[in-house]
Amino acid sequence: MGGLFVINETVKKLNMDPKKTSVAIQGFGNAGSNLARLMHRDGYKVVAVSDSKGGIYNKAGLDVKAVMEHKEKTGSVENFPGAKNVTNEELLELECDILAPSALENQITKDNAANIKAKVVLELANGPTTPEADEILVKRNILVVPDILANAGGVTVSYFEWVQNREGYYWTAEEVNERLRKLMVKAFGDIYAVKEKEKIDMRTAAYVVGLERMVKAIEARI
To answer: Where are the domains of the chain?
Structure first.
């Protein structure tokens, strides 16, 4: 859910209409498949997904629920009816508005960064973009939503579980999602504001915000 909250805020900032926004997701494990399901639910057009064996593409959009059922039956998203098979490498370079690398690190490199056609890269995986590729994407005005923000939902919910166990609380799934939404929306807003004010990229802005919070926490203990 954290990635969805972040991309929804990104889309708002860029004045994009979810119903006219195409999405390609590399990785169809827990993170990738859930993102695909949730974005499809919210009206985004998921045009491509992939797993370790390969991917599929349909410019008109995929029925994500049907793709999930197909993968469960066959073990892969490949050969889904009505879709074209593509490699994981080809998926990264497809025409789309949002590209979400959600599987492995070092997928976007200096060798393919110039071929990325997405307007936004949502780093749901850890370190999917190399530093060299990051520079290329920034120069091309492609907005990279960094992993330190995009995939922070999981560790945040783990913290919620720790708090509940420690204090004897019980939060419903709806309460957990709403608490997560508020935190992710605030984190995105803080980082985006620094990005705009300092004229820097989102990753650097995330580091700036993180360091400022660390300094405040340390000063509060002195």
So the answer is: 2-150, 154-221
